[in-house]
């Protein structure tokens, strides 16, 4: 039997969705179907065609189509959900919860029937709660419902460390644990540059400044853009996660996963390090935390739980 190209659906053809679609195609990860609401069908088709017309120039082979009809997404291997409203200056991500929960629910109702075997990656905010809503609506196993926040938050953290030390971003390693809110937990103790712990290279007050800037990194971009939120780094993060699954790379990445006892939490989607491979979330790593780190994670988990309570009934 001929080997078919992978099919990737991106729901929401706005800033993050369109950027993600282009990056997926540029990396030839599969054919991309971009979906938005019926009122935006023509602009969605237009964006997809425009991207396709970049392919001869850049030399990538991928079909890119735009639609508002889920029939066109039938049998997708991966579905990335970016549908929803973005925050504006002065808003928190949690202010989006009611509107976006409705959107994520309706999108997932369609995905559930058209792509029942898909791995689903959530971006819509507040993303920890939206991943929970998606999980409940889809009824898919937990390894196939994955939220994106840690790859982006870690990318910001590593950017700031590289800037501070004037070293290549390629040599910075670290990660951010917890919810995608201002109380996320960059794990300084597990961060290094070329294997050298950052605590031996950067003074404590500068590390604290980097941690704080990371925590409010999304807000920094929202403030600068004035009418929307970040999309280049979020799209790059989604593509890295999709690639890890499609190529069974078994990357170790911070992802939003359903915790059932790990880190002392039950029935909660939260950012943790995991192996992401051909079967989605293949393993969650449980790290040893100091009492201070655990307390910081507890605060972040409580914030997520409070938002989840607004939109999702606990599993019973
Ligand atoms: N988790 C993260 O790290 C992260 C990063 C960036 C953005 N986000 C979130 O992602 C979401 C999208 O951000 P954006 O900048 O792309 O916003 P955007 O406004 O540019 O695009 C959102 C798109 O979703 C579409 N949409 C709305 N309802 C839909 C539905 N029912 N079906 C299909 N499409 C629908 C809109 O028409 C719009 O085109 C926001 O909620 C934002 O906060 C999260
Ligand atoms: O900050 C936002 O509202 C968007 C996104 O969550 C981000 O971190 O860039």
UniProtKB/TrEMBL annotation:
GO terms for biological process: lactate metabolic process; tricarboxylic acid cycle. Residues 152-312 form the Lactate/malate dehydrogenase C-terminal domain. This is Malate dehydrogenase. NAD(+) binds at residues 12-17, 36, 100, 123-125. Belongs to the LDH/MDH superfamily. MDH type 3 family. The keyword Metal-binding does not apply. Keywords: NAD, Oxidoreductase, Tricarboxylic acid cycle. Residues 7-147 form the Lactate/malate dehydrogenase N-terminal domain. It catalyses: (S)-malate + NAD(+) = oxaloacetate + NADH + H(+); (S)-lactate + NAD(+) = pyruvate + NADH + H(+). GO terms for molecular function: L-lactate dehydrogenase (NAD+) activity; L-malate dehydrogenase (NAD+) activity. Its EC number is 1.1.1.37. NCBIfam families: MalateDH_bact, PRK06223.1. InterPro entries: L-lactate/malate_DH (IPR001557), Lactate/malate_DH_C (IPR022383), Lactate/malate_DH_N (IPR001236), Lactate_DH/Glyco_Ohase_4_C (IPR015955), Malate_DH_type3 (IPR011275), NAD(P)-bd_dom_sf (IPR036291). Substrate binds at residues 87, 93, 125, 156. The gene is mdh. Catalyzes the reversible oxidation of malate to oxaloacetate. The active site is at 180 (proton acceptor).
């Amino acid at each position: 039997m001929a080997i078919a190209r992978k099919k990737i659906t991106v729901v929401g053809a706005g800033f993050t969705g369109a950027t993600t679609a282009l990056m997926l195609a540029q990396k030839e990860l599969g054919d991309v179907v971009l979906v938005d609401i019926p009122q935006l069908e023509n602009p969605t088709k237009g964006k997809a065609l425009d991207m396709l017309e970049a392919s001869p120039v850049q030399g990538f082979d991928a079909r890119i189509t735009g639609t508002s009809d889920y029939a066109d997404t039938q049998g997708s291997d991966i579905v990335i959900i970016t549908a929803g409203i973005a925050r504006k200056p002065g808003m928190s991500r949690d202010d989006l919860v009611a509107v976006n929960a409705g959107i994520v629910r309706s999108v997932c109702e369609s995905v559930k029937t058209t792509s029942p075997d898909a791995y689903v990656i959530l971006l819509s905010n507040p993303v920890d709660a939206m991943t929970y809503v998606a999980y409940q609506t889809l009824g898919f196993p937990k390894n196939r419902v994955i939220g994106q926040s840690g790859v982006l938050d870690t990318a910001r953290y590593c950017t700031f460390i590289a800037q501070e030390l004037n070293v290549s971003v390629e040599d910075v390693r670290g990660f951010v644990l917890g919810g995608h809110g201002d109380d996320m937990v960059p794990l300084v103790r597990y961060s290094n540059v070329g294997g050298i712990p950052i605590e031996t290279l950067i003074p404590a007050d500068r590390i604290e400044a980097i941690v704080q800037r990371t925590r409010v990194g999304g807000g920094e971009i929202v403030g600068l853009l004035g009418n929307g939120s970040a999309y280049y780094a979020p799209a790059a993060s989604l593509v890295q996660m999709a690639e890890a699954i499609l190529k069974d790379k078994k990357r170790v990445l911070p992802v939003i996963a359903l915790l059932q006892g790990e880190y002392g939490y039950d029935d909660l989607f939260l950012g943790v390090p995991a192996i992401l491979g051909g079967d989605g979330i293949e393993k969650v790593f449980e790290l040893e935390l100091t009492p201070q780190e655990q307390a910081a994670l507890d605060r972040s988990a409580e914030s997520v739980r409070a938002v989840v309570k607004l939109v999702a009934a606990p599993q019973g």
